[in-house]
Amino acid sequence: MILIVGLGNPGKKYEGTRHNMGFMTIDLLSDLSKIDVDKEVFHGLLGRGKIFDQDVMLFKPTTYMNLSGTAVREVINYFKLDLSDIIVVCDDLALPVGTIRLRTKGSSGGQKGLQNIIENVGSEEFKRIRIGIGEPLYDTVDYVLGKPLKEEMPLIEDAINNAVEAIKEAIKSDFDRAMNKFN
């Protein structure tokens, strides 16, 4: 079983914001793979299904970004998952808008949702896909909770599509191959 977690903030107020790149990626993957992510459990929304005959769970924590680790830990503990079977998708201020970066482990890089997961699972040893949202020219909180500019949207849409393709490549072959192809 592979757990794919998309980080974001719940509610209409946050839909389409820069901080919700993880949610948007899960939504697209859900649509393409016909896996409904609608079961309210573990402080989030969960869907189970198959991608390339691989059992997967798609998960969107509804604890808000900075507390995502609590929900992720609950899913990991309940299903007795190894950290090696987890892929977390989130936004990243340090990457240019529209780029993605895959890593097998590492620090949070200041991303508070990732940091909370690291604290809750007690390890940095899980895969992640970061989607670049660029560095803010003004207040960071307002920036990440704001919507991308009109001219950024094609880049964001490409990045989300690439993140979905990277996930599919990781499932079909392995994460290292996906890193080589998409980094």
What does this structure look like?
This protein has a 7-stranded mixed sheet, sandwiched between helices. It has one domain (2-182): Rossmann fold, CATH 3.40.50. It has helices at 21-33, 68-79, 112-121, 140-144, 153-172, 175-182, and strands at 2-6, 39-41, 44-51, 54-61, 86-92, 100-103, 127-132. The chain is an alpha/beta fold and 183 residues long. The longest helix has 20 residues, at 153-172.
Entry summary:
The protein is of the alpha/beta class.
Share of residues in strands: 15-25%
CATH 2nd-level architecture: 3-Layer(aba) Sandwich
End-to-end C-alpha gap: 25 Å
Molecular shape: globular
What are the segments in which pLDDT stays under 50 over at least 5 consecutive residues?
A: none
What attributes does this structure have?
183 residues; alpha/beta; Rossmann fold; seven-stranded mixed β-sheet; 6 helices; 37% helix; globular
Task: Please write out the topology.
Elements (H helix, E strand, L loop, with lengths): L1 E5 L14 H13 L5 E3 L2 E8 L2 E8 L6 H12 L6 E7 L7 E4 L8 H10 L5 E6 L7 H5 L8 H20 L2 H8 L1
Parallel strand pairs: 1-4, 1-5, 5-7
Antiparallel strand pairs: 2-3, 3-4, 6-7
Helix pairs in contact: 1-5, 2-3, 5-6
